[in-house]
Amino acid sequence: MNASAQRISGFRHVVKVRQHRLNCDEPVDQGGDDAAPSPQELLAASLASCTAVTMEMYADRKGWDLGPVEVECEYTPAERGCPTKFTLTLRLPSVLTDEQVQRLKVIATKCPVHRTLDGEVMFDERVERTQLAA
Fold first, then answer.
1. What is the pTM of this model?
2. CATH 3.30.300.20 for domain 38-121
């Protein structure tokens, strides 16, 4: 998987993923124009959407009619002495059995983004120098 971010202006960037394009920016109080979600908001969106899709794929395999599902992710970045905190709220149809709800709650923690954030992460940074466009 690969993604790139290229500056448009200020803190606004176009993010390229395969053939898709999306923007990110910072809120006004952080020096941006608030023209798009911030990178940290995109991280919360990534976890929320991956969790929803993972539960829906599991329910499809089980033949469950899951109906409308919503996952809300509240994200509090790490600060001095406090770890990063994600609070996920799974909104599931009331017609599901307690057993189905419990199974979906377990499956929610197995989405790839959740596992990445919960696991060991390694970074390898490098710099490539480029010529400025005239």
1. 0.89
2. yes
